[in-house]
């Protein structure tokens, strides 16, 4: 109870928690979602095969 | 939620009906039984009439009119299990690269691909340098210079893939009067999409079946509406040499070029599917949340019970005021 009350006491704290919370949630969600997607499509996307063509370019 | 609400509604309707029947049974009056039978008969016959008229209307006006002969329709394309059409799969970008090679080496001599700029190849099937080299192989008009002359310059990444012919008339003249259509959006432009184009490319028989009439200058292909197509068979085993060592059979090349054409028609597909899943995930959480909030808010109302004490019976000490609420 005490922790939650402290959160609501000052508006700046409340707002800050919401903003950082949203940012962190977004970051976590995007990272997990993208990694699941890349896992399902492993070997199919350009980033999985580009190493084959990037090397020959250096010579 | 919706399903449950519907169920509840159906349940309510049922209890209403049985209640009615019970009341009729308890009064055991023959005239009321007859009235109930009449009610049921009326209900059943009007339902039957409604269903019947919908069916009749559909039979008259709802069906697809097939005015063409099967030959004019063309053979229905076989449905193939395309991996990239699954809702959770991207294009196979190695196949896109091979398909683009097939387009360049085979189709591009007749078909334009006018909606695809070189820049869109970068990061999907080519490196920047490869795409730049490819663009520089072609010349494009410059802006008019000081004297108003238009000069030639090598292509850049922002240029679009050049068309094989100057204009549609030139294309027709070179192809017996038939215009090879632009392939950029071909997968979206034909019924059956990938399946149709694959069937078309691989569907040329050795020779037309006995009795089939093929006009001169046309080729027999059962999948093409009308069966006479101005494009001859173009894919043969070993026509191109893939750099990744894939064996270039006719069907392999057809599959690769079709997947490439699917990309050219909807280059946003990978992104769209991935975004779609994210929307479903977030939307699912929000939906579950809204269901929970609704139930939370309604809990009081749903579990409330009204009691009414008839004043004429006289009040007992435990009697509650009319309208007082109880929680279950």
UniProtKB/TrEMBL annotation, chain A:
The keyword Transmembrane applies. GO terms for biological process: mitochondrial electron transport, ubiquinol to cytochrome c. Transmembrane segments: none annotated. It comes from the Eukaryota. It is found in: Mitochondrion inner membrane. The keyword Transmembrane helix applies. Belongs to the UQCR10/QCR9 family. Component of the ubiquinol-cytochrome c oxidoreductase, a multisubunit transmembrane complex that is part of the mitochondrial electron transport chain which drives oxidative phosphorylation. The complex plays an important role in the uptake of multiple carbon sources present in different host niches. This is Complex III subunit 9.
From TrEMBL, chain B:
The chain crosses the membrane at residues 275-293. Its cofactor is heme c. The keyword Disulfide bond does not apply. Residues 134-159 are annotated as: Disordered. GO terms for cellular component: mitochondrial inner membrane; respiratory chain complex III. Keywords: Electron transport, Heme, Iron, Membrane, Metal-binding, Mitochondrion, Mitochondrion inner membrane, Respiratory chain, Translocase, Transmembrane, Transmembrane helix, Transport. One of its GO terms (biological process) is mitochondrial electron transport, ubiquinol to cytochrome c. Heme c binds at residues 107, 110-111, 231. Its EC number is 7.1.1.8. Gene3D superfamilies: Cytochrome c-like domain, Cytochrome c1, transmembrane anchor, C-terminal. Residues 94-247 form the Cytochrome c domain. InterPro entries: Cyt_c-like_dom, Cyt_c-like_dom_sf, Cyt_c1, Cyt_c1_TM_anchor_C. It is found in: Mitochondrion inner membrane. GO terms for molecular function: heme binding; metal ion binding; quinol-cytochrome-c reductase activity. It catalyses: a quinol + 2 Fe(III)-[cytochrome c](out) = a quinone + 2 Fe(II)-[cytochrome c](out) + 2 H(+)(out). Belongs to the cytochrome c family. This is quinol--cytochrome-c reductase. It comes from Baudoinia panamericana (strain UAMH 10762).
């Amino acid at each position: 109870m005490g922790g939650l009350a402290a959160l609501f006491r000052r508006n700046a704290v409340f707002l800050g928690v919401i903003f950082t919370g949203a940012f962190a949630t977004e970051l976590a969600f995007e990272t997990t979602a993208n990694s699941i997607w890349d896992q399902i499509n492993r070997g199919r996307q350009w980033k999985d095969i580009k190493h084959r063509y990037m090397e020959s370019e250096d010579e | 939620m919706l399903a449950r609400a519907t169920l509840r509604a159906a349940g309510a309707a049922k209890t209403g009906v049985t209640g009615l029947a019970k009341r009729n049974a308890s009064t055991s009056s023959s005239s009321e039984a007859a009235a109930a039978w009449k009610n049921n008969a009326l209900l059943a016959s009007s339902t039957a009439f409604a269903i019947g008229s919908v069916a009749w209307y559909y039979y008259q006006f709802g069906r697809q009119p097939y005015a063409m002969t099967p030959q004019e329709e063309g053979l229905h394309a076989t449905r193939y299990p395309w991996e990239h059409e699954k809702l959770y799969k991207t294009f196979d970008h190695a196949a896109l690269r091979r398909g683009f090679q097939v387009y360049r080496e085979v189709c591009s001599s007749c078909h334009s691909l006018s909606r695809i700029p070189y820049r869109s190849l970068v990061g999907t099937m080519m490196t920047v340098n490869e795409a730049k080299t490819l663009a520089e192989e072609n010349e494009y008009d410059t802006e008019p210079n000081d004297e108003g002359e238009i000069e030639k310059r090598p292509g850049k990444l922002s240029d679009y893939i050049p068309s094989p012919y100057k204009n549609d008339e030139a294309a027709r003249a070179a192809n017996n009067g038939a215009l090879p259509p632009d392939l950029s959006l071909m997968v979206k432009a034909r019924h059956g999409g990938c399946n149709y184009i694959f069937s078309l490319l691989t569907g040329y028989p050795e020779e037309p079946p006995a009795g089939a009439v093929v006009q001169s200058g046309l080729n027999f292909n059962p999948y093409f509406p009308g069966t006479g197509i101005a494009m001859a068979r173009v894919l043969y085993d070993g026509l191109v040499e893939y750099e990744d060592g894939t064996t270039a059979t006719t069907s392999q090349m057809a599959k690769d070029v079709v997947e490439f054409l699917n990309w050219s028609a909807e280059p946003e597909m990978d992104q769209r599917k991935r975004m779609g899943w994210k929307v479903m995930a977030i939307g699912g959480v929000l939906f579950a949340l809204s269901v929970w909030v609704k139930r939370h808010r309604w809990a009081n109302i749903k579990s409330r019970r009204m009691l009414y004490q008839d004043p004429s019976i006289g009040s007992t000490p435990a009697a509650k005021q009319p309208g007082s609420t109880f929680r279950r």
